[in-house]
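Attaching the record inline, Q. Sequence:
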Amino acid sequence: MAAPAGDVAAGRATFRAGCASCHQVGPSARSGFGPQLNHLIGRRAGSLADYAYSPAMKGSTLVWNEQNLAAFIRQPERVVPGTKMRFFALGYDERRIANLLAYLRSEPGEAQQPARP
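Structure, as predicted:
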């Protein structure tokens, strides 16, 4: 079954309500309580130099794609056991997850350099 395409405006609202307290996205995004989310799809999990990831996330071999990111949003601990991420607001609402992913894809924020191994 194909995932819904998602609505960018609805995803922006979901991000503001559920993600923005910990994460930033966009041209001036920086890591803070959580890592910034610019160019997340295709990025190795735990790879930004400016964020103190959990050992579990740093040791992960995960490369973010829409499927594993959606699974992580649903159940962070199941995808990366030992992660610091605690988020349950979207649960299994596939439409809201698709909207959030559409918004993250749409943001033209600056890429940051991954941490060097």
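The chain has a mean pLDDT of 88. The chain is about 35% helix and 0% strand.

More tomorrow.
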